[in-house]
Write a structure and sequence with these properties.
By secondary structure, the protein is α+β, with helices and mostly antiparallel strands. The chain folds into 2 domains: 2-60, Orthogonal Bundle (Arc Repressor Mutant, subunit A); 72-247, GAF domain (Beta-Lactamase, 2-Layer Sandwich). The chain has 9 helices and 8 strands. The strands form 2 sheets. Strands 5-4-3-8-7-6 form a 6-stranded antiparallel beta sheet. A two-stranded antiparallel ribbon has the order 1-2.
């Protein structure tokens, strides 16, 4: 009975899409008001709900969002993000992609290409990318715990090209620069002639578990262009984060 009431209360909070009070829960459920207060407190104690304004009104908590994300397939994430990625690909006239962090690896899980039929573009491919040499991976790693960054730096760092950063000092400086700018870039570090840029997609207090990026030939992706697109990817990352979280809440 108690579990059923907790679930009912969570559903009410999720559907509302805004902070919900005990009085509103009582009106929707018919439970005694003291029970509603206890239910909301239990949800907060377990991290399934939180009161951001400190006024007793609650929203879906980070823990529940994390649980939903862990169970969310790539198909679900792609469905939420694809329209935003497509619009960006058309805007940049370059390929835009989405990556996901799991099992201590970063994988590209989706890519959208420009609509211009006369445009030659780069497709990044799908699958795991090196943590030290790809913008999509570095955008996530730079905002991870220092211990995780050290595990990357102290691991086997393959030099894919003469541009690949493989030393402790180079990578630590690169991570610091990424944190300062808010996005990462890859200047021919995996393939000569190809550059990319990516920004982390943070989900609440969970952190950066996705990234969005753009890739193109170095003749179009010089430092100035990467800087311009990187700033725009920061904004895109916020919209993608919102789309993924909205999808999570709607399915909780």
């Amino acid at each position: 009975m108690h579990l059923e009431r907790l679930i009912n209360t969570l559903e009410i909070i999720a559907v509302a899409g805004r902070p919900v009070s005990a009085s509103e829960v009582q009106k929707a459920t018919g439970y005694p008001k003291p029970t509603c207060y206890r239910l909301l407190q239990t949800l907060q104690d377990t991290g399934l709900a939180e009161a951001p304004a400190g006024d007793g009104r609650v929203v879906i908590g980070e823990r529940l969002i994390r649980i939903a994300l862990l169970g969310k397939s790539d198909v679900d994430v792609r469905r939420a993000a694809a329209p935003l990625l497509k619009a960006a690909a058309v805007q940049f006239n370059e390929t835009v992609f989405l990556s996901r962090f799991r099992n201590d690896q970063v994988e590209i899980i989706h890519a959208e290409t420009p609509d211009d039929p006369a445009r030659a573009y780069i497709h990044p491919g799908l699958g795991v990318r090196p943590m030290h040499a790809c913008s999509c991976s570095k955008a996530i790693a730079a905002f991870a715990e220092p211990a995780f960054q050290s595990s990357i730096i102290n691991g086997t760092l393959k030099a894919y090209t003469d541009h690949t950063k493989t030393s402790d000092n180079e990578l630590r400086a690169d991570f610091e620069r990424i944190r300062e700018r808010g996005f990462a870039d890859c200047d021919q570090e995996i393939d000569v002639g190809i550059a990319s840029v990516a920004a982390p997609v943070s989900i609440g207090n969970i952190g950066a578990i996705f990234s969005v990026g753009a890739v193109g030939p170095i003749r179009r992706f010089g430092a100035a262009r990467r800087e311009d697109i990187g700033q725009q990817l920061i904004e895109l990352a916020e919209r993608v984060s919102g789309a993924i979280q909205l999808c999570n809440v709607a399915e909780v």
